[in-house]
Amino acid sequence: MHPMTREEAHEIAFGLKENYPGLQPFLMARNxxxxxxxTILSAQTTDRQVNKVTPAxxxxxxxxxxxxxxxxxxxxxxxxxxxxFRTKARNIIxxxxxxxxxxxxxxxxxxxxLMTLPGVGRKTANVVLAxxxxxxxxxxxxxxxxxxxxxxxxxxxxxxxxxxxLRKLLEPEYWNYFHLxxxxxxxxxxxARSPRCxxxxxxxxxxxxxxxxxxxxxx
Length: 219
Fold this sequence. Notes:
The structure is a single chain. The protein has helices spanning about 5-20, 30-40, 45-60, 65-70, 70-80, 85-100, 110-115, 120-135, 140-150, 160-170, 170-190, 205-215. By secondary structure, the chain is mostly helical. Helix 2 packs antiparallel against helix 8 (about 120-135). The longest helix has 18 residues, at about 85-100. The radius of gyration is 19 Å and the shape is elongated.
């Protein structure tokens, strides 16, 4: 198939929004601090599992000041059921300390400042900017990376390249909802091991599906 055009990319974005209306951020959070901590915790862990542990965590440590003073072992007890809980406990405490010491207890709203915080990479910063501050952002997780490459929206070998490819193809006004809807599509239809190509409403745009058809294969 031909290279992806901006027009076709927007058709994909429209199709995703039409089929997944009304999506909200997947991580439960009432403010930027909770969004930041929950997103740090979500690395290599399901959003569902994070949402199980954060209510008790935030009841015990409702703000950066409280968490900055927390005992690491006690924080670990709250998040023990998620992956890499030791490292994450250390990171959210250190991040809270930095928020208190350098940002007046507030979560910063720029990519550069967010990425100075322990445990915060580009994807985490993008999620916080999108979900908490409404800034046009393109977080690339495993679902976004996989589905974008299958569709042909990107031919990247790493998430940062994929993010830049998507930013070039789509207008900023579409970025935040696109990332939510393509995650949902990756969960519901375009799964890693057994994609359900036969029911996919995007298969006419999909380079992966086209290559299978040309080889006489199926998903």
